[in-house]
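FYI - complex with adenosine-5'-triphosphate, inputs then prediction.
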Amino acid sequence: MPEETKPMHFIRQIIANDIANGLPPEAVHTRFPPEPNGCLHIGHAKAFCLDFGMALENGGLCNLRFDDTNPDKEETRFVDSIKEDVHWLGFDWGDREFYASNYFELLYGFAEELIMSGKAYVCTLSPEEFKEYRGVPGKPGKHSPWRDRPIEESLDLFRRMRAGEFDEGQYVLRAKIDMDSPNLHMRDPAIYRIKKAGHHRTGDKWCIYPMYDFAHCLCDAIEGITHSLCTLEFEVHRPLYDWFIDNTSVMKNLKVHPRQYEFARLNLSYTMMSKRKLQQLVAEKIVDNWDDPRMPTLSGMRRRGYTPAAIKNFCETIGLTKYNSLTDLALLEHCVRQDLNKVALRRMAVFNPLEVEIENWEDGKVDMLDAVNNPEDESAGSRKIPFGKRIFIERADFEENPPKKFFRLSPNNEVRLRYAYFMKCKEVLKDSDGRIVKLICTIDPDSRGGNSPDGRKVKGTIHWVSADHCAKAEARLYENLFTREDMGNLPEGSDFKEFLNPNSLEIKEILIEPSLLEAKSGQPLQFERNAYFMADAKLSSPERKVFNRTVTLKDSYQKA
Ligand code: ATP
Ligand code: MG
C-alpha cells in the first residue's frame, strides 16, 4: 500500500505523538519476539508486519528476537523456518538477530540484584501451594511463609538453584511486589524456575530459566526498544513489565524506557491459530506437516500459492484495534485474488475431460497458436500452444439439451475455443449406457486466434487442451480445514477435532497444456475459468506435476 493511503491506527498515532514530542523518527525501535516452538502463522504476520512496518515507516529499526526462555519445546529448525518466513514477507533485521538466551547471564545478574535489594526471595512453596496462596481476583492472596527469608539465605539458595543442587519445582525465585494487588500478575510472580532441560542454544549451561515476564521487558530495555508491541492478553502484564525495568539497574546507562502497547490478535474465521493445537495437528498427522497448504502457517500459505504482497496487504487492511474480534477469511482470500489477478500466468487445464474430434482437421496436422500469458500484464508475454485433430474440453461446457442462456457448446451452437478457433458441434457419440463419450465438431479455419472472420459473434469461450500434447497431472483442491466459524472459541468441553472438515482435501487427475510441465513453484498460475493454482515443490516429480489450488476464482461457475 502506498504510504499516503495507509490508514491511521492507534499505534501509528502513538508513535506520531512521540515524534511530535521530540523522539527522532529514526530512533523508533521495535522488535518481533517469536518463541521458536512452532512455525509462524498469519497471526504472527499481523504482528511482525506491524513491528517491521512501524520501524521502516520512520526510518527506525526492528530486531528479530527469539524468545527462547522455555527450553522444553524450542528447536533450531523453528528458528530457521521463522527467519525464512519473515524474509519471505520482505522484512530484514540486518545484523540484529537476537535471542533472550544471549542475555541469560545479564538477566541472572538482575535477579541477584533484586534479591539483594530485598525485592525478590526464594520461595519453597510447592506449585500447588503457590497457586493457593496467590488467591483469586477480588480476594487478596496470602504471604508466602518464605517472603521474609533473609536476603543472604535467598541469595545462597538462588546460587545453588543455578548450580543444579535442587530438583525441578523445589524452589522458585519470586519478585516481592504486592499480594493484595487486584492484578494477580503482581502477586509476587515467579521470575526464575528450575528446569533441567537442555536448551537448543545454551545446551546444559543452565538449569534455571527466567520467566517470560521477567525476561521480555529487560531484553527490550537492553536492546533499546522504544515501542514494544504485543497482543492484548499482555495488557494485564504491563505493570509488571514496568516494575522489572524500574526496580533493576537495567536503565542505568540507557536513555529510552521501553513502553509496551497492546493490540488485538488476529482471529480468522474457520481457522485455528493456537500454536499448541497446530502442533497437535502435525503430531497426529491430521495434516502433512507445518507447511501443509491447509495450515494457516506462512509456510503453508507459501506452498499453497499465497503471495507476500497479498498477505501484507491483508495485514494492513485489517488495521489494529483494542478489542478481539473475528476477521472473515473471505477478506484474506479477496486480498489473495487481487494480487494473483495481477501476477498469475494464465494457463489451460481440463478437469473433467470430454473428447472432441475436429472433423475438418487434417490428421497429424499441428497448429502452434499464440496465447497471452497475462492480459493484466503485457510484460508477461505469450506462449505457443499446440492444436490438433483431437482435443479435450470440460464436460460441463457441453449440453446436449441446453437450458436457456447456456452459451457454451451445444449441438449446432458455435463457441470460441480460447486462443484457437470458432467451433461448432456436429454430432454427439454415446456409449451403450447413453453416456456422451465424444463430440464430432468442425472449426472455422478463418477464425484462427479466436478472431471472428466476418463480424459474426459467438457468446461463449471455452478452454481446451490438445489430446496428443497434453499431460496428466494432479490437482489438489483445498477447502477450509474446519467447519466451525469461530475456532478460537470452542464450546465448553469440546475438542477441535470435532470440527475437522472431512472434505478439506480433494485430489483430482487433470489434463494440462504442455507448457505447464515447466511450471515452477513460486510462480502463481490461473487455470482459466477454474481457479488459481501453484505447482507444489515437494510433491511434484519430473514425471508428474502436482498443483495446489490457491483460491477459487471469485465468480467461478465451476465452484459448485
Ligand atoms: P500462540 O498463541 O499461537 O501459541 P504465541 O503468541 O505464543 O502464539 P509467539 O511466538 O510468542 O507465539 O508470538 C510472537 C508474537 O506474535 C507475539 O508478540 C504475539 O503477541 C504475536 N502473535 C501471536 N499470535 C498472534 C495473532 N493471532 N495475532 C497477532 N499477533 C499474534
Ligand atoms: Mg508467546
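The chain has three domains: 105-212, 266-348+472-560, 349-463. The radius of gyration is 31 Å.
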